[in-house]
Amino acid sequence: MEDKKKNYSRRDFLKVAGIGAAGLSLGGCLSDTQSIIKTAQNNRWNILWLSCEDISPDLGCCGDKYADTPNLDRLADEGCRYTNAFAPYPVCAPTRSSVITGMYPSTIGSMHMRTRNKGYQTVPPPYVKCFTEYLRAAGYYCTNQSKTDYQFNAPFTAWDKCNRKTDWRNRPEGAPFFSVINLTVTHESRCWEKENEILTHDPENVTVPPFYPDTPIVRRTLARYYDNITKMDKQVGEYLQKLEEDGLADNTVVFFWSDHGRGMPRHKRWIYDTGIHVPMIVRWPGRIKPASICDDMVMLTDLGPSVLSIADVKIPSHIQGKAFLGEQKKKSRKYIVAARERMDNGYCEHLRAIRDKRFKYIRNFTSQRPYVEYLAYRDDNHPIMKEWRRMHAEGKLEGPQKLHFQKTKPPEEFYDTINDPYEINNLINSPAHQKQIRHMRATLKKWSKETGDLGGTDENELIERMWPGKKCPQTAEPVISIIDESPKKVKVRIWCPTEGASIGYKLGENGRWLLYSEPFTLEPGTVIQAKAIRYGCKPSEEVVKVLYRRWW
């Protein structure tokens, strides 16, 4: 497929998001296929992601004295801690769609929380792929344990193995690996109240954010959150130990990151720093100075291209994330952009935030809506939210505690995040900051235009473009063709009439779907199975063919 540019419009998206057979899916439709797949090199770096859920930089190595995180502290001592790492969305599914594709959710249409809540899957533009496909094409063994949540069903072509028990073990001999371990013990739901619990963190010593009421319920919930972080840290230690036992620590790059901020009210689902500022640690033996700190602005969108850069796989030009490590490292970002649309089963919102290392500008395009809406999952379960609403109803909130219950959102917000880390004092009308506000306002508008920002587009319109008639399209069957042969070899090409489809194949008794990326040779008489998938659509039916010679 020909190269795609980064700058495309909303109209372009709505055109390419269709699933018609406007073009052929040669080579699995990997962008820049021939230039991406490089000759296998010996001693390539292994890469391990240890990702967790719903935490802010609440670790000992981040300066939090209340936290008990010895394993992550040690990882930071052996690597680099990124102090300005941010999620593109303050909630998991849009963010994970961004991580796996290297694209902004507002560009590919995956920005509403849980598309399945509205009965559809995101169908990204046809050139958008899970970055793991590029790794697999380059010879990496890719595993995921096991969360996906990409806003489209995880394509069978994205991973060699994707289940709760898989890791880097059992890979083909000599193959480098990319392995993802998803640690879920810190998820928001783990902060619900428990019977007969014994907390290891003393609630009396917790720091209560100024926008919360300071009550025993709030303190116990925050202490429970820190207990969960300690449990997660122990799991991190176990996987690092496993890496050591396998003799892989010295040639494996380890990433640690969280998918967004704390699973707490006014944290998760909010584009304040409490919702988007995340911990990130990278250990790269011999390449990253131990105990180093980097204040470059990075996004979780940048993780995929950074892995490709480390793996010496060319980053496709359509990817919007920027590599912050490796030979393809890009110039540091001057700012990051975060966003929010529909949350859970709530109404559709449209918020954007732009942040540099100090200031943040927020534009609330749906400012007429209530500042905080009722969300059953959170409001009926989260102890802090229930306590907060109770005290509001009783008129017992004071000062910043009242902010969360304003009738509407301000159309614009502006904060000095250094002097006001909780983003309480809105400086949008401050005379001293008008120049900076105008600059950030204009920069955000430019970003929206350049990235083809779909924010504000009616979700039903997006659904109709992706799933006409609200029915899931099916990917066409792949076609297996013999393009050359000799007495002992048959050269095979596989293609699919559905534009943007990825193709997998199996040989003989091989139980693992291999990724098709370019023609290859086989022995005559080989039985080959093939299947195709356009992201967000039903996979094709399987095709089976015996490779008989046509002559000789």
Keywords:
single chain; 552 residues; alpha+beta; Alkaline Phosphatase, subunit A; Immunoglobulin-like; 3 domains; nine-stranded mixed β-sheet; four-stranded antiparallel β-sheet; 13 helices; 20 strands; disordered N terminus
Instruction: Kindly provide the name of the CATH class of the largest domain.
Output: Alpha Beta
**Cα distance spanning the termini:** 34 Å
Low-confidence spans: 1-41
Number of domains: 3
- CATH fold type of the largest domain: Alkaline Phosphatase, subunit A
Report helical residue fraction: 10-25%
Q: Which outline best applies?
A: globular
Strand content: 15-25%
Class by alpha and beta content: alpha+beta
> Considering the protein shown, what is the CATH homologous superfamily of the largest domain?
Alkaline Phosphatase, subunit A
Number of separate helices? 13
- Give the name of the CATH architecture of the largest domain: 3-Layer(aba) Sandwich
The largest pleated sheet is described as: 9 strands, mixed
Mean pLDDT: 91
Radius of gyration: 24 Å
Q: Please give the number of β-strands.
A: 20
